[in-house]
Design goal:
The chain is an alpha+beta fold. Helix content is 63%, strand content 8%. It has a five-stranded antiparallel beta sheet with strand order 4-3-2-1-5. A three-stranded antiparallel beta sheet has the order 6-10-7, covered by helices on one side. β2 and β3 form a beta hairpin.
Length: 657
Amino acid sequence: MPVSAFLARVVALLVLAVCLIGLRPGAATAQQDLQPLLQQHQEDLADPSRRTIGPVIADLLDSGHLRIADFLRKWEAREVYVRPEDGLFFYAEEAGDDLRLIDIDSGEAVDVVGSRAVDEIRPNAGVRRELAAALVPVELTAPDPARRQDALDAILRSSDASQIPPLADSIDSETDPAIKTRKQRLLALLTAQFGATKSDRLDAIAALAGDTSIEARGVLNQLTATRDGVAETLPEDANIARVLEVGTDITEAQAHDRLVDEGLAPPRQTAADLRDVLAEHIVDGRVGGVPVHRLDTLAARADAYEALEAAGTVPPRAAPGEVAQAVAAHVFYEQYLQPDPEITQAAQDALDATARALGLYQTADLVIDGLSLASIFFLAAIGLAITFGVMGVINMAHGEFIMMGAYTGYVVQLFVPDYTLSLVVALPMAFLVTFGAGVAMERLVIRHLYTRPLETLLATFGISIMLQQLAKNIFGTQARPLTAPDWLGGAITLNDIVGISTIRVGIFVLALIFLALLLYILKRTRLGLEVRAVTQNPGMAASMGIDPDRINMLTFGLGSGIAGIAGVAIGLYAQVTSEMGANYIVQSFMTVVVGGVGNVWGTLAGASLIGFLQKGIEWFNPSNTLAAQTWMVLFVILFIQFRPKGIVALKGRAAGD
């Protein structure tokens, strides 16, 4: 074959190949401009409606154009404009009071026009849902993780079987572990509802057992949804959830109403209804041929109605005996909407497992809340327990020491803007301030009233009012912010049910630290030894060279200082006001009395009992915390009747008192 002929054939084959490549629909469309493609659907795109937009979106996506996904995304975000004079579409960005038009194909600015020169395309909510659903396969593999999350949200909002293949294909290429886990979980939800085979659905449903998320419970509830049914005999081909017993599961009146709704029985009629109908059909002194003066009995009225019914004047009615007969002739049941019994049984088993998991998680959440509240009560009451136990002083101003500690933390934050550093400074500062205030109060007032407890109560109550008014004069009546550091501002969440704020975890840890510190002071230091000696026998302690007055002063100051630190902790999540201490004084006294006066372990036991019991009462009536506190007061009153010395009774002077 001559070389020239061979070259001619090669050239011809190349030309043919190029032509074939150019004739491919996707390749040709992908290379052309987007604007002409949009103009083919100009009317539907410029004025979209949910009824007509579905085929348009499908046609645009089938075109395979490289920029069609970006256009649909901007259209959904209401960033597309149309110029009325020629119907062309543009992207736009603000340019002062005007709009800068961006060419859809080149991405370059082509004009600056007033806002009235173009029309913004504003798809309604229905159209936007259609757009979001159509973009799901594209967005599942988008480079931006936020767009992939949005695609998963769109699947949750409107799930269907067509989303399973693109979702499954996107899992292996997913690089974000959290998104990958969510995709796998969402795939299980979709498979449970729309799986191609029964075995796939059953496996997916079994995987949802114990899943307490709202989405999983929603899917399982859909698979076990039922509707009411009634028939003369139980349908053999129906997936029956349960048969209802008349008189037990459903009343006779409700059963008859179902028959009436299904057109299987006429409506029943009361005596008043019968009388009113007859009154409307009086003709020449007769009703159905019966003289009016003879309609003085129920039987005569029934005969008159039956005559009207036979003449077609009134609709049929069910007499009392007929109601019972109609109900007895039918069977009432609940039927699963899902026709496959295996699917509904698997879903019900999964729901039962989820219910058990919910119970465990709710119990765990209740225990965590109880621990959190108990730690707050412990911090608020431990100082009062020490002063009350050692000195027998009913200090009604204890809550105001909590308030002083909180305001000390607020003042420290005014000068130390770093919240972490200010917290480190505020805790010892609050202790020093309230320790000094407690020592001053003991030296000036309490020491003169040791043998007169009722006068001590009145004096400390007056001091509490004075301290509240002093705080109002200095800081005003508005609540002051005591801001927690960022590392205490979040929450620890295990799942949709179990969670606790980080600040409450911090308070719990602080309570444990103080428990250990107080136990060390009382058991391992000379001050603790002297405090325990004075508590058990002040006379013998004085004879051994211990100064009871000095111990009382230091003990009162220590209890007040601890209250100040508790005020800083409480102020991090509660409002800092002049009355905040009054909110904790009652709980503090209840904690001390129930736990046992003057004992650290007793205070811990009392705080735990009251904290858990109050949270338990609130669990039964979560919308009314005041009722829970009222029940708590009643409980304390009953408790001290049977155990007046508390859970952990103290030996020595306090026990004798």
